[in-house]
Amino acid sequence: MSNESIMPKVKEFVGQYLNTDTIEPDLDLFASGMVNSLFAMQLVLFVEKEYGLKVENEDLDIENFKSLDAIHGFIERKLEVTA
Which InterPro entries match (predicted)? Predict the structure, then answer.
């Protein structure tokens, strides 16, 4: 899987939840009040299923999931470790 394909998939998933296709990559989704803890769990399940990754307890840090950029970086790092 190429790193270029990560952001469009993440943006599509988040956009479907927020019912929009215009999300700034650096927008803090949680601080902005756009998402909640239920969404966070759905996001973790999406990452695990879509990329075949195991999100460990130590990975459940808001810094890994707070924005599209953060999610993208997290997935890239996890994919590098499993490669």
Answer: ACP-like_sf, PP-bd_ACP
Looking at every residue in the chain, the average pLDDT score rounds to: 94
The whole-number average pLDDT for the span 31-57 is: 95
Residue 8 is part of a domain; what is its CATH number? Answer: 1.10.1200.10
Nearest CA to 71 out of 7, 1, 5, 4 is that of: 7
Please state the pTM of the whole predicted model. 0.92
11 in Cβ contact with 76 (< 8 Å):
no
Number of structural domains the chain divides into: 1
3-class DSSP assignment, residue 29: coil
